[in-house]
Amino acid sequence: MRVIKFIGIFLLLLPIASRAQVDSAISKLIFAKLKSYSKNHIVEKAYLHFDKPYYAAGDTIYFKAYVTVGNEHQLSALSGILHAELISNTNNRILQSENLEITSGVTWGDFALPDTLPKGTYRVRAYTRWMRNNGEPGFFEQTIPVAAVRANTSRQNKTAANNISKAKPDIQFFPEGGNLIIDVRSRIAFKAIGTNGLGMAAEGEVVDNENKHVSTLKTTHLGMGDFFLKPRQGKTYTVKIKYANGMGDTIALPKANDTGIALAVKDDSVRSITIKLTAGKTCYQGNRNKNYTLCIQSGDKLNYLIFKLDTPELSVKILKRDLQPGINRITLFSPVGEPLNERLIFNQVDDQLKLKISSDKTSYSKREKVTVSLSALKKENKPVMGDFSVAVTDENKLPVDEDAESTILNNLLLTSDLKGYVEQPNYYFSSTSTEVILNLDLLMLTQGYRHFEWKKVMNDNDQQPVYQPEHLFSLTGTVKTPGGKPAPKSEVSLALIKQLLARDTTTDVNGNFEFDNLDIADTAKLLLRVKGNRTIAINNPDYPEVTPISSYNADTTSQKIKPEIADAMKKRYEQSGNMKTGITLKQVDIKSRKEHPWDTPLVHSDNLNGPGRADQVIMGDQLKSCGNIIECLYSLIKGGVRIGSGGLIYSLHTPIALNGNTKPMIVILDGLPIRQDQLIAEGRVNYTDVYSIEILKSYMYLTIYGSEAAAGAIVITTKHGGESNDITMQPGLTTYNFNGFYKARQFYSPKYEVQTPANNKPDVRTTIYWQPVLITDKDGNASFDYYNADGPGTYRVVIEGIDGEGNIGRQVYRYKVE
C-alpha cells in the first residue's frame, strides 16, 4: 500500500499560482466551479438562544438571534431583517410573526404566549430572505414544548397518534464512502429509528443468499451502529434485524459493485486522520496510472490532492490543524471530474472562546441580589470584545436534559450543516472521550450534508440567486382602471404620518409599483393615493409556506415536559395571580352536540373547538366597506348582542351576562386574545384580510377558552395561502397596516432593595434573569446583577455569544439558593 503525504491547505480565495502542487485540468475545474458557486451561494445561518428550554401558556418566550455568514461564522452584514415566527405543530399555522432588525449580525425578540394556549409542541422558525435560496432546510427551527395552565385547552392530534401506532421501526444502511465493492472489506453504518422518530436499539445478523451467517450487528448509540463486510462475487446479502420492541424485519443490503473505489477514514489520534482508498480489481485494471482528485471541503474552503492510481491501495495522512473546525466533506473525483465517493468527518478543534463565569457568592438566600462576572478569552488567552446573551433559570423548576440542548456550538458547528433531525446534539460536545468521538463519527456516516451536492456545483452555470439580501422593507402593488385593466404611468404617493415619511413613484407599463428601502417601526398604517379614478391593490408579503412537521416528531417532542413538571407549572401560574377571576364554565362534551344550521365548512380556523364549531360563522366576503370590523359585526350577528360604550359588542347570552355582569366579548385574532378596543384603536386587521369570523356565546363553545372568554368570544381568522393575493380599498385611496420592525419587550426583573406592596406577591419565576445584550470590554470583562426569586435550590446561568472574528463560546454556571 502506498502512503501519500497530504501537502498544505489551500484557501479558495488564494490565486492558483500560489499553490505548491501541480494542477490538472480537472482540479482547476473543481476549484473554479466551487469558487463560482460559493460566490453566489454564501451560506448565512441564524441561531437563536432562548431563555429556557420549555414554557407554560402565559409565559413569554425571549430569544437572542445570532446571524452568521460563511464557515468561519462571522457576524453577518449581508441581511438587515430576520423573520421570526411561532408556529403551531398541530395545524402548521403561523400564530405570531415578527420582523426583527439585524444590527451587526444580532437581534432579539419575544413571543407572548396567551394563557389559553393548548399544551403541545410549537416551533420557532427564523430566516432571512437570503436563506430562502436554500429552502426551508436552511432556516433555523427549534421545537418549543408548552404546558397548559388552563383546563380543557388540549388539542389532541389523533391522526398523528393513529399513524404512530400503525407504523413500524425503520432501519437504513450506509456503506462508508457510498459504495460496496466486490472483494473489498468495507464499513457499513446503520441507523434504526423507532415509531417515535428517535433512535432505537436493535441487533441482528447478516446472511448471504444461501442463508449462511456472515456477520452480526448491534446498535451502540441512539439507534446507530456499524459492522464490516467483504462482499463476494455472485453473492447478495440480507440483514435479519430484531428491534428492542420485539418486532423484526428482513432488509436487503445495497448491492456490491464489481468496479469502483472504496473510501475509508480512520481517526488516528488527536492530531491526524488517515484516508484509505481501495480500488476494486476491475477499476484498477481499467484506470491504472490515471489521475484522481481527492478534495476536502468546508464551506468555501477547499483542500485537494491529485494522485495517480498506480497501486490498488493507497492512504493519505492529514493533520487536523489543516482542516476547518466542524464538518468537513471528503470527495473523490474520477479522472473526468465525476464525484465518486463522499464521506463526512467532524474536526473537533478546541478553538472556541474561553468563557469564565463567577459570582460574588456561591450560595444565596431568596430574593438576594446576585452579581455575576464574565471573562472572555480567545484560545491564545487574549481578551476579546464579544456580543453575548444571558439566561438564568431555576433549575429545580426547569430541569434540563443537557445532552438534548440546542446550543450555539452544536448548532453552528454541527446540526445546521446536517440533513434531518439530530437527536441529543449536545452529547457530541460533552467530552472528547473515545466513546463520544466514535459515536460522533457514526453520526457523520448516517446523516447527509445539507448545503449542496457536488453534481449541482459542477453543473452550475453561474445562476443568480432568486432571493436577494433584504436590508429594509419594500411595498409593491398594482394600479388598475375601473374596468380592471393595468394603469401604466400612474402617480402613486405613500405617506406615514407617524414617522413623517412621504414617497412618490410611478407605475410601470403593467401598472405595477414598488416602494423600497422603507424603514418602518412597529405596526404602522400607511396611506396610499393615486390620482384619477383608479384602484390600488397592494400585494401581500411573500412569506414561505410552513412545511408540516412529521407526525412522529410532533408526538415525540410533546413528551419533553413531564406530567409532574407540567402540573407544577400550572400551579405556579395560579400562584402568580395571573389567573383571571370569572365564572367556571360547566364542561360539555363537544362531540355530542348537534350541528347548527348556519355552520359553514372552513378550510382553516383558529377556533379551538374546531373549524365551524361556533354559534355563528361569518365569512370574510360578507364584510363590506367596514370602518372597523366590530362596527360591521353588529349588523351581521344573529341576535343576542348589544352595543355598549365605545361601540363595543356585549353578548346577552353568555354565562356572566345571565348573572347580570357586563363585559365586552373578547376577540381571538389568529389564535391570540386581544380586547375589542385594542382591535379598533390599533387597526390590527383590515376587513379585506379576514377569512372568517366565528361567534361563540354558548357554554359548549366557551368552555375550552376558560374564564377569559366567559363574556363570549369573537374568533377572527385571517386569510393566508392562496385565499388572497392582494388587499384592495376604495378607488384612489388605500390604507394598509404594515408590520415593520418589532420592538422587543424588556424582561421584567424585580428589585427587592425596597419593600413595596407588589413585592408581597409570591415570586414563582422560572426565568430569573434574561439579558440579550451583554458586551465585554477591551479586557474581555462584563458584569450584571439581578435578584433571586422565592424558589430554593440550584440556579443555572447560561451565557452564549460570539466575537467579531466569528469565534463562538458557551458556558454554564450554577449556584445555590437556600
Which helices and strands occur, and which strands form pairs?
Blueprint: E1 2-5, H1 25-40, E2 44-50, E3 55-56, E4 60-69, E5 74-75, E6 81-88, E7 94-101, E8 106-112, E9 120-127, E10 140-147, H2 158-166, E11 170-175, E12 186-193, E13 202-208, E14 213-218, E15 224-229, E16 237-243, E17 248-252, E18 261-266, E19 272-279, H3 281-287, E20 291-298, E21 301-308, E22 313-319, E23 326-333, E24 339-347, E25 354-359, E26 363-364, E27 369-377, E28 386-394, H4 408-413, H5 434-446, H6 454-458, E29 473-480, E30 491-496, E31 501-506, E32 512-518, E33 523-530, E34 535-539, H7 551-557, H8 563-575, E35 616-619, H9 629-636, E36 641-643, E37 649-651, H10 655-658, E38 666-669, E39 672-674, H11 676-682, E40 690-696, H12 699-702, E41 713-718, E42 726-728, E43 733-739, E44 767-775, E45 781-787, E46 793-803, E47 808-817
Helix pairs in contact: 2-7
